[in-house]
Design a protein that fits this description.
Number of helices: 13
Order of helices and strands: HHHHHHHHHHHHH
CATH superfamily of the largest domain: Farnesyl Diphosphate Synthase
CATH class of the largest domain: Mainly Alpha
Pfam family, one: Terpene_synth_C
Number of domains: 3
Keywords: Metal-binding
Structural class: mainly alpha
Strand content: under 5%
Organism: Corchorus olitorius
Number of strands: 0
InterPro entries: Isoprenoid_synthase_dom_sf, Terpene_synth_N_sf, Terpene_synthase-like, Terpene_synthase_metal-bd, Terpenoid_cyclase/PrenylTrfase
Distance between the termini: 29 Å
Protein name: Terpene synthase metal-binding domain-containing protein
Helix content: over 70%
Shape: globular
CATH architecture of the largest domain: Orthogonal Bundle
Mean pLDDT: 81
Length: 298
């Protein structure tokens, strides 16, 4: 790559590190704008249009973020102190979403929402049982529970409810897909990928603080291999899972909005874990990503 021009060399370097198809479009838009504006052959009108588009969407994101930060959290006197905020936020949020769906779609989504949360909480309970019982699951046992406990299925269900607003009648809504979500590859592969990335980036610190075994540790115990070999195996699973998700999206008969939503969420999560533990360690790279995407206009 030494003979390539600086900008082209940087693009090649990024693509070798993370394939373009795996990257989150909105965060990559800024990179392309920065590179394009240094091109001597760039189209000034196109450049300005790209900047306007980026800044407009950024302002929308900030507005939505502000609304999230202004939730009205009243005290619930009958609950323990530590549960009040969580319970009320969840209660208000779910009921508001259910009411909107009933008015806009004529559809009661409460059973689907309940099913998602029950499955999620049940999976966390399984992990808690493993931890307190000192049980080390096999890799298959871990994945069978872990793809749900990572929480992406809940997020996807919420996103799919939003996509439903594009449809005008219950007859064309893919309700069977939502009823059988636990058998759907469109739920499974994004969730499994998130679980794999989370384990690769956070398991070391989580194990140091006494957390339950992750996929890396499960594979080490099951196969009797070192951590490096286990990590390489899990990395291989991420590549295979990406291929299977891409194949499913290319062949699915589900509305394109559902497939696009799952793909965007998967890319977003990949971006979040690219620089390590997004939630537990506030690295400068993560801060730069948030600032450039949400707070710093072009």
């Amino acid at each position: 790559m030494g003979k390539l021009e600086n900008d082209l060399r940087e693009q090649v370097k990024q693509s070798l590190e993370v394939p373009l198809y795996w990257r989150f479009p909105r965060s990559e838009a800024r990179n392309f704008i920065d590179i394009y504006q240094r091109d001597s052959k760039m189209n000034l009108v196109l450049l300005e249009l790209a900047k306007l588009d980026f800044n407009l969407l950024q302002s929308i994101y900030l507005k939505e973020l502000k609304e999230l930060a202004e939730w009205d959290l009243e005290a619930i006197k009958d609950l323990p102190e530590y549960m009040k905020v969580c319970y009320l936020a969840m209660y208000n949020h779910v009921n508001e979403m259910v009411q909107d769906a009933l008015e806009d779609l004529g559809l009661d989504i409460l059973p689907y929402v309940k099913d998602q949360w029950v499955s999620y909480v049940r999976s966390l309970h399984v992990e808690a049982g493993w931890f307190h019982g000192g049980y080390k699951p096999t890799l298959n046992e871990y994945f069978k529970n872990g793809w749900i406990s990572i929480g992406i299925a809940v997020g996807l269900a919420y996103a799919f409810f939003g996509v439903m607003e594009e449809y005008s009648s219950k007859e064309i809504l893919p309700l069977e897909f939502l009823e059988n979500w636990s058998d759907s590859e469109l739920f499974y592969w994004p969730s499994l990928l998130t679980r794999l990335w989370d384990d690769l980036k956070t398991s070391k610190l989580e194990m140091e603080r006494g957390d339950t075994a992750k996929s890396i540790q499960c594979y080490m115990i099951q196969e009797g291999v070192c951590e490096e070999e286990a990590r390489n195996y899990i990395k291989g699973l991420t590549n295979d899972s990406w291929k299977k998700l891409n194949k499913f999206i290319a062949q699915t008969c589900l509305p394109s909005g559902f497939a696009d939503t799952a793909l965007k969420m998967t890319r977003c999560v990949h971006r979040m874990y690219h620089y390590g533990d997004w939630f537990g360690i506030q690295s400068e790279a993560n801060k730069d990503c948030v600032n450039s995407s949400l707070f710093n206009p072009i």
